[in-house]
Specification:
By secondary structure, this protein is mostly beta strands. 11% of the residues lie in helices and 42% in strands. It binds FE2/S2 (inorganic) cluster (FES).
């Protein structure tokens, strides 16, 4: 982005489809935002690179289906984040139940996800500005760099 240019959110060209598929996980910086682009089971996803909890590197996380939803598992403290929505899931017992059984619960949207489109073999990411402040915003930009270094 040029100096004095207003950030638009894109869409930005992020690579050729074939190359991104082969890479499986690709790191891009768009408008000073570090983004992870993932190709998994035939679908592209894009989300903030640093885990909302404490800035862990999601690019190194395993992907698992949990409660019917694809999640990336942050390698740092194992938080589970849905790839499509950035929702944080956790499993717990409800002590109010007579015979508690572990179930999945949501902490809500925590990780910012972005829109990926593909046109004629080229892949584009449009940055999401929706939903107001999300916790993963904290670890982006120059200030985020300092915060990530602390944890
Ligand atoms: Fe990701 Fe703690 S930094 S779970």
């Amino acid at each position: 982005m040029e100096e004095n240019e207003q950030p638009t959110g894109g869409p930005y060209f992020v690579g050729k489809k074939d190359e991104l598929i082969e890479a499986k996980r690709s790191f891009r910086t768009l408008e000073d935002r570090d983004i992870l682009i993932i190709h998994h089971q035939g679908v592209f996803y894009a989300l903030d690179s640093y885990c909302y909890h404490a800035g862990g590197l999601l690019q190194n996380g395993d992907i698992e289906e949990l409660n019917g939803r694809l999640c990336i598992i942050c390698p740092k403290h194992k938080y589970k984040i849905t790839l499509a929505e950035g929702e944080s899931l956790y499993k717990a017992n409800d002590p109010q139940e007579p015979q508690p059984v572990p179930r999945w619960y949501s902490k809500g949207m925590k990780q910012r996800t972005h829109t990926v489109t593909e046109i004629n073999g080229e892949v584009f990411v449009k940055l999401s500005k929706d939903q107001g402040w999300l916790e993963s915003d904290f670890f982006q930009g120059e200030k985020g760099k300092l915060e990530r270094a602390k944890v």
